[in-house]
Amino acid sequence: QQQVKQSPQSLIVQKGGISIINCAYENTAFDYFPWYQQFPGKGPALLIAIRPDVSEKKEGRFTISFNKSAKQFSLHIMDSQPGDSATYFCAARKVQGAQKLVFGQGTRLTINP
Amino acid sequence: DVKVTQSSRYLVKRTGEKVFLECVQDMDHENMFWYRQDPGLGLRLIYFSYDVKMKEKGDIPEGYSVSREKKERFSLILESASTNQTSMYLCASSITGPNYEQYFGPGTRLTVT
Predict the structure, then answer these.
(1) b/e map of A45-74 (b: 16 or more CB within 10 Å)?
(2) Interchain CB distance below 8 Å, A32 and B100
(3) pLDDT tens digits along B21-48
(4) The pLDDT of residue A98 is above 80
(5) B108 vs B113: CA distance, rounded Å
(6) Which pLDDT score, from 0 to 100, does residue A2 have?
(7) A43/B92 CB distance under 8 A
(8) Could you report the per-residue pLDDT of B78-109, keeping only the tens digit for each?
(9) Which of A79, B8, B45, B61 makes an SS bond possible with B57, Cβ 3.0 to 4.6 Å?
(10) DSSP B35-98
(11) Residues 2-61, chain B: which have Cβ within 8 Å of A?
């Protein structure tokens, strides 16, 4: 019940296309869902986050869609650029021990020019 | 800017050696975390600390211990390194409160031979 499942493991998108990464969770007590972006040689950094009281959050070209009933959330990158090539992790916060995050398996995104 | 630094970027140790990984943050964060990152498995929490001298086990604490004697410093200790502990180790810190962003260091790539 503590897992977050992320797919796909890798994704190749043409420049200008839409990149979509999906995550699913089981624990209905999760109440905070961030996405982290990691470039080679760097630690992950927060990209965008959502709480379950809204169905969508948009920041520039990045959008999180959240489906509470299906226990799924996804990251959409519009007009994908080569600079978006990175590894993306979804995560969820456990209510117990409230500062802990449970991470998905990661998606390596490559944007071809 | 929050800065989380890790003592080494690359480390090579022999089986059975005692290994210390050091992490320092400069933003007076209460919470500090140690993760290991492996391909296809995402980030898995080893230990975290919510205050000086306080620690709590994460999802994979076996074979590891931690120390937090000062608020800014969190050490991960491998008492007797084994080859299955070859991995990327990431340290993170965060405040306590509604903003759950974790700030990550650049990581230490540990190889145990």
Answers:
(1) ebbbbbebeeeebeeeebbbbbeeeebebb
(2) yes
(3) 999 999 999 999 999 999 989 999 999 9
(4) no
(5) 16
(6) 64
(7) yes
(8) 999 999 999 999 999 998 876 678 999 999 99
(9) B61
(10) EEEETTTEEEEEEEEEETTEEEE-S--TT-EEEEEETTEEEEEESS--GGG-EEEEEEEE-SSS
(11) 4, 31, 33, 35, 39-45, 48, 50, 56, 58-59
CA distances from B19 to A47, A51, A99, B16, B78 (A): 32, 39, 27, 9, 5
Q: Rounded to 5 degrees, what angle do the CA atoms B16, B42, B102 make? A: 95
Residues of A with CB under 8 A from a CB of B: 2, 6, 9, 32, 34, 36, 41-46, 49, 89, 93, 97-106
Partner residue opposite B104 with nearest CB, options A32, A44, A98: A44
